[in-house]
Amino acid sequence: MSRRVVIAGGGTGGHVFPGLAVAAELQSLGVEVHWLGARRGLEAELIPERNLPLTLVDLEGIQARSPAEAARAVALLPRAVIKAVRTLLELDPLAVVGVGGYASAAGLAAAGLLGIPMILQEQNSIPGMTNRFLAPWADLICCGFADAVAHFPSLPAEWTGNPVRSHFFEVDALEPHDPPRLLVLGGSQGSLFLNRILPRALAILQTEGMVLKVQHQTGGRWSEVVMTSYSDLGIEADVSAFLAEPWRSLRQADLVVARSGALTVSELAAAGRGAVLVPFASAAGNHQEFNARSLERAGGAVVLTEDEANPTTMAAVLGEILSDSQTMVCMGAAASAVARTDAARKIADRVLAIGGGL
Predict the structure, then answer these.
(1) Phi and psi, residue 2, nearest 5°
(2) Distance (Å, rounded) from C-alpha 281 to C-alpha 323?
(3) Cβ atoms within 10 A of the Cβ of 1, count?
(4) Any bridge partners for residue 120, and if so which?
(5) How far apart are CA 38 and CA 224, in angstroms?
(6) What is residue 269's predicted lDDT score, i.e. its pLDDT?
(7) Which residue ranges make up each domain of the chain?
(8) HSE-up of 8 (CA within 13 Å, CB side)?
């Protein structure tokens, strides 16, 4: 058997980037990594940029679809599993690591059929549908949040933390700027909700005399609209669709406004930056709010639900935090205290132990 591991899954940055962190650790241990992903997922773009071999299957998500669309997505699964089986037979890997997203279903189903050890990465506090279904057949479930372990009773689940790229841990401890610097993160897809309310919230703070430096990551569809919103409101802001190296922006930020996907929360903790988190209300199982509350309990975040968040309340919360440098320092330190620095290495070691590659 070769010293090779297949990572299966993706779709969004929240699944792809943790997988890439594990891939880097595996490569540092002399293991060859092959990625199995979906043709329409973000992995189709990001994995080739990292010079990792990639196999793509035609597969779509099922959740939040009409009955007809869900039926079409289910119909694609058998062909995707067959392609995954052929890929695994050719590669003969030690193990398959599922990082979530619908593409992981094909890879893990193929691993189960072939008797190849399978490891699940569950990034969120509330497990996703694919991982809940596949968990009984997994050799290990690596949980990004301690809360998730309880959702896998009598199964081999461990709290490993979420793998975060090493650059985030290299961000220096916060030394507040004058004027304060605010970073708005919409995630790899962007957040229409944040794009709508943040310019108006910051306009309120500007009329109250607060001076800020603002960087706003919008997602590809909305950068020009958000840029126009800031311009019309007379606010200077650095607006970009995507941040290729978000740790650089976090290094310059005093406070962050963001959604609360698992990876975002873990990266904030790794970088030691406090945040105002607005969970995506339609997230499956309301998992984004559970993610956000975990950081809030630690003192590293303030949570506003979508029902609570509007320009006025956002301005009030931001104004209180940004006007008190000590609060920002304390929030950053509290976030840093819950970061798991060894998550990627721990998962890589466990994958090799289970796959017999040590």
Answers:
(1) -75, 160
(2) 29
(3) 10
(4) 98, 141
(5) 29
(6) 97
(7) 4-164+341-355, 168-337
(8) 32
Note the pLDDT of residue 9.
92
Two domains, one topology: 4-164+341-355 and 168-337: yes
Q: Kindly report the pTM of this predicted structure.
A: 0.86
User: Please, which pLDDT band fits residue 70 given cuts at 50, 70 and 90?
Assistant: low
For residues 163-189, average pLDDT: 93
Q: Are strands 301-303 and 4-8 parallel, antiparallel or unpaired?
A: unpaired
CA-to-CA dists, residue 28 to 35, 116, 175, 304, angstroms: 16, 23, 33, 40
> How far is the C-alpha of 358 from the C-alpha of 338, rounded, in Å?
29
Q: Tokens for 52?
A: 């990792």
- First CA to last CA distance, the chain: 12
Query: What b-and-e string marks burial along 280-312, b requiring 16 or more CB atoms within 10 Å of the CB?
Result: beebeeebbbbbbbbbbeebbbbbbeeeebebe
For the cut 80, the answer to whether the pLDDT of residue 65 exceeds it is: no
Q: Read off φ and ψ for residue 140, nearest 5 degrees.
A: -160, 140
Q: What's the token pair of residue 265? A: 């929360």
Fold classification of 168-337 is: Rossmann fold (3.40.50)
Q: What is the pLDDT of residues 268-294, one digit of tens each?
A: 999 999 999 999 998 878 889 999 999
The fold for domain 4-164+341-355 equals Rossmann fold (3.40.50)
The two most distant CA atoms of the chain are separated, in Å, by: 66
Strand order, beta sheet including 140-143: 54-57, 32-38, 4-8, 95-98, 118-122, 140-143, 157-159
Query: What pLDDT, on the 0 to 100 scale, is given for residue 103?
Result: 84
